[in-house]
Structure formats: structure tokens, C-alpha cells
Design brief:
The protein is an alpha/beta fold. The chain has helices at about 15-25, 60-70, 75-80, 85-100, 105-110, 135-145, 165-170, 180-190, 210-215, 240-255, 270-280, 295-300, 315-325, 355-365, 365-375, 385-395, and strands at about 5-10, 35-40, 55-60, 120-130, 145-155, 175-180, 200, 230-235, 260-265, 285-290, 305, 330, 345-350.
Length: about 400
């Protein structure tokens, strides 16, 4: 009989976390394992990329509590009062205040899920895969039946709103915790040392065969530009740092360089970035291409790849750009040094406008350096087999 595995996450947005999950699912033998993906909402450009043998489910009733989770409780209470739901307003505020006073966030989640009956299926393994969302961790521990449970950490616990007290109580209930970089693992263990024995690294996997295939299938750049193309891939959000690159391009253009900077991705900061592009008078040379589930033709065709993130857990696009032998510049976020050797397989810099400008200028001016980076960046591929065995050992272990 097939072993049953469940992965729970927010949605299938076009992002590194979701891509890493898809790559992992494709490495798990479908003849031996029955896989379910449980999402909070039916949304995302990667929805159609989920393999056909995978069961897809959505959390019933999430749309009724999403706004409560995502807005200040007092606003929700006011809205309840306006609609005549006095008791609901008072009880919600009571549970929220109790959770704050007692520093027990789980109380609020229990209140929100009080009517949820749960699924009768028992899985061999359930995974809280979402990243920085306490609700999913709580749900997997309290509402999913499974013989083993795993928490996945895709983020830098020092850079996001990590609720240390909540994690201390919930994470200890998981059988294993996977963090996507060694540096990220060390940061988690430094905050919660008692988790050390159950915490391990699981690097985000790329799929070389899929990258090669999709790079050939796609079209890529269509603007006939003859200069140097710089590419960045990532959601348009502050954490991804595209705002750092806009004034850098303006300086490069003012210095006479024939370059264009392209960004693949979309997000809440798009309008802000459009205004910044206009302010720097580079509308024709800083190109926001929007979200694209196949960035690989662009990666293959660009001359330089830049990852300007403020923070990451483990940046999968760095691994992809390295696999495609691109000269890379990356800011020094968590996991960057585990993927790039500075001044050998890429340049690692501080999150700083002047450093970014100088590093791009350095690559533009030094053809030999670009060639050496390309030569030295022959991809030391992380063995998917080794990582998947590490994961499936948990499913198959009797401990």
C-alpha cells in the first residue's frame, strides 16, 4: 500500500518556495507515495504546474477567517458590531486579548477553528511547508492526523516577524524540522537550542532537466536590444530588494553603459517601483516583465544575473542562474555563501547602492572576470536523491 504524504501551504503563487515544492514532488516516486497538497486558497500561477497524480485540496472555510488573520482584530470587531454581531465581536476580542496577555497565540487559532471538524484521513507524514505562517504550523499539529509531522523553514528567523514563544511551543511537537540552508538552521537553533537534535538542513532542489526543457520551449527577450542585459527574478516586494537596483541602473546609464535591467515577477511594490523608475528617468531601460512561470529563456539569454534581496532563506533562483552559467551578483543574505564562492563563482556584496553599482561596473568592465566566473561556476549539483532519501526516511522510519 502506498504511503500517504500531505504538504500544507498558503497557495501556489509564483515563488521560490512553491517551485521548490514542485521540484521535490517530482522526485518522490509516485508508485510508492500518495501525495496531497492542501492549500489555504485556490490561487497562484503554479496551480497548473502541480503534477496530475497529486491530490489537491483547499481548506474549507478559510475565506471566512482570512480577513481576521490578516487585519487588526479591533477592525474586525468593529465590523462585527456594525453588522449587529455583538456576541461574535466580543468573543473574538476576548480570545485575542487572552492570547496577548497570556502570550499564547494558539488560543486565538483555537477560537478561529472551533467549528472545524478536520479530515478523517490519517497520513503517514504531514508537512507544514508554508514558511512564516504560524496558522499553518498550528493547523498541521492540531487538525491533521498523521503518524509523523515535519515543519519546513524557508525564511531567515532573524529577519521576519518570527514569534519565538509560539514556535517554542509548537515546533517541539514536530518530529523533524527542516531548514533550507545551514546558516538558516544555525539561526533557528541559536534562538531555540532545544530543537537542535530534531533540526536538519534540506536544500531547495532545482530540476536541471526541467530547466533545460523549459529554457528551450520559451521565447525570452523580444526587444532586439543589442547591449548588456541584466536580469533579476523575484516577487516585487521590499524583501527582494529591486528598489536597490533602480538607482544603480540610472548611475550606469549616466556613466555611459549600454545596459538594460529586466525584472521578472510581480507583487505589492510594483507601483512604488514604477514611480521610482519614472523618477530616475529610465523608463525605457528598466523593464518590469511581470510574473512568468518560465523565467529560464530569459536567464539563459541574459548577460548578468543579480539577486538584490534584503533577506532570503535559500534563494532557488541563485541555484538556477548558477546552473545556467551566468555571472552572478548577490547581496549577502542567509544561504548566499552556501551557493556562491565570492570572487570565484560570483560576487557577494552588502545591501548597498554604491557596492551594487561598483560590482556591476566591475563585471561590465572586466570581460576576463566574467569568463572566469562562468568557467568556475560549473554547478556542483545538490543530489536530489540524497535529499529526497533524507525526507522519505522520516516516512518509512518506525521511530
Amino acid at each position: 500500500m502506498k504511503k500517504k504524504i500531505l504538504f500544507m501551504l498558503i497557495n501556489m503563487n509564483v515563488g521560490g518556495t512553491e517551485k521548490a515544492l514542485l521540484n521535490m514532488i517530482n522526485e518522490i516516486p509516485k508508485e510508492e507515495y500518495d501525495i496531497t497538497v492542501l492549500m489555504l486558497e485556490k490561487y497562484g500561477g503554479f496551480l497548473n504546474s502541480i503534477p496530475s497524480h497529486v491530490h489537491i485540496e483547499y481548506l474549507t472555510g478559510y475565506k471566512d477567517i482570512k480577513y481576521i488573520l490578516n487585519q487588526p482584530p479591533h477592525l474586525t470587531a468593529v465590523n462585527f458590531l456594525k453588522s449587529g454581531k455583538v456576541i461574535k465581536s466580543m468573543s473574538m476580542l476576548l480570545f485575542f486579548l487572552l492570547s496577548k496577555i497570556l502570550k499564547e497565540r494558539s488560543l486565538f487559532f483555537k477560537y478561529l477553528l472551533k467549528g472545524y471538524q478536520g479530515n478523517e484521513i490519517e497520513y503517514d507524514l504531514a508537512v507544514a511547508y508554508a514558511g512564516p505562517m504560524d496558522f499553518i504550523s498550528f493547523f498541521v499539529i492540531n487538525k491533521i492526523k498523521a503518524k509523523k509531522k515535519v515543519q519546513w523553514i524557508h525564511f531567515d528567523v532573524n529577519k521576519i516577524g518570527f514569534n519565538e514563544r509560539f514556535a517554542a511551543k509548537i515546533y517541539k511537537k514536530f518530529d523533524r524540522i527542516f531548514v533550507v540552508s545551514n546558516q538558516g538552521k544555525d539561526k533557528l537553533v541559536s534562538k531555540l537550542p532545544f530543537l537542535k537534535e530534531k533540526t536538519d538542513t534540506f536544500f531547495n532542489l532545482i530540476s536541471p532537466n526541467a530547466i533545460d526543457k523549459m529554457a528551450k520551449e520559451g521565447i525570452g527577450f523580444e526587444d532586439k536590444f543589442k547591449g548588456v542585459r541584466i536580469l533579476t527574478v523575484g516577487r516585487l516586494t521590499k524583501e527582494k530588494g529591486q528598489d536597490l537596483t533602480i538607482p544603480v541602473l540610472a548611475k550606469l546609464k549616466n556613466s555611459g553603459y549600454n545596459v538594460r535591467w529586466y525584472c521578472i515577477g510581480d507583487g505589492g511594490a510594483r507601483k512604488e517601483y514604477e514611480d521610482l523608475i519614472n523618477k530616475n528617468n529610465i523608463v525605457n531601460d528598466f523593464i518590469l516583465l511581470g510574473a512568468n512561470t518560465n523565467p529560464y529563456p530569459f536567464m539563459q539569454q541574459c548577460n548578468i544575473y543579480v539577486q538584490p534581496s534584503r533577506h532570503e532563506g535559500y534563494c532557488i533562483t541563485l541555484s538556477e542562474a548558477k546552473y545556467l552559467n551566468k555571472p552572478i551578483i548577490s547581496t549577502n543574505f542567509t544561504g548566499a555563501n552556501e551557493q556562491i564562492t565570492n570572487n570565484k563563482t560570483g560576487l557577494i556584496i552588502k545591501f548597498d547602492e554604491i557596492e551594487m553599482y561598483n560590482s556591476v561596473k566591475k563585471l561590465l568592465d572586466d570581460k576576463k572576470l566574467r569568463e572566469n566566473i562562468i568557467k568556475d561556476s560549473r554547478y556542483e549539483i545538490i543530489s536530489p536523491t540524497k535529499e529526497i532519501e533524507k525526507f522519505l526516511d522520516i516516512v518509512n522510519s518506525n521511530n
